[in-house]
Amino acid sequence: MHESSLALSILDIVLRQVPGACTGAVRRVDLCLGEYAGVEEHTLASCFEMVALGTPADGAALAVERVAATGRCDRCGEAAVRQGRLLGCPECPGSSVTLLTGRELYVKSIEVTKIPRRHEHAHAL
Q: Membrane-spanning residues where (predicted)?
């Protein structure tokens, strides 16, 4: 199950962007996930929830924006159309298609709770 290693990588990205935050400071992580990325969204969310326990991302929602697959015919350059679960050229049946979008998996944004700063005042004796 590669979703667990992906969840760890996502958490690593989040923790590098939110250093020193207290547990629960990360409210939401927005991902872009291509339809051909080969990632099961529900499993990824469950894995992320588990690996985030006790970290600043503990309890953070994982919001997924799906990216549709698009492509272009290698022979004529025509935009590919959906043919079942695959993409194909409407003009050149059987020709190969270069995938332009649909394999993405990246952190788009991270929403954090503003943590109030504690002001330590020195007291004179």
A: none
- Domain residue limits, the chain: 3-112
Whether 123 has a binding-site annotation, put simply, is no
Query: Is 76 labelled as part of a ligand binding site?
Result: yes
Q: 3-112: which CATH topology?
A: hypothetical protein PF0899 fold (3.30.2320)
Q: What is the pLDDT of residue 20?
A: 67
Whether residue 4 has pLDDT greater than 50 = yes
Tell me how far CA of residue 67 lies from CA of 13, 105, 117, in angstroms.
Answer: 20, 9, 38
Task: Determine if residue 22 is labeled as part of a ligand binding site.
Answer: no
73 known member of a binding site: yes
Predicted confidence (pLDDT) per residue in 45-93, tens digit: 999 999 999 999 999 999 999 999 999 999 999 999 998 888 999 999 8
How far apart CA 3 and CA 90 sit, in angstroms, is 34
Give the residues across from 93 on adjacent strands.
Answer: none
Residue 122 pLDDT greater than 50, yes or no:
no
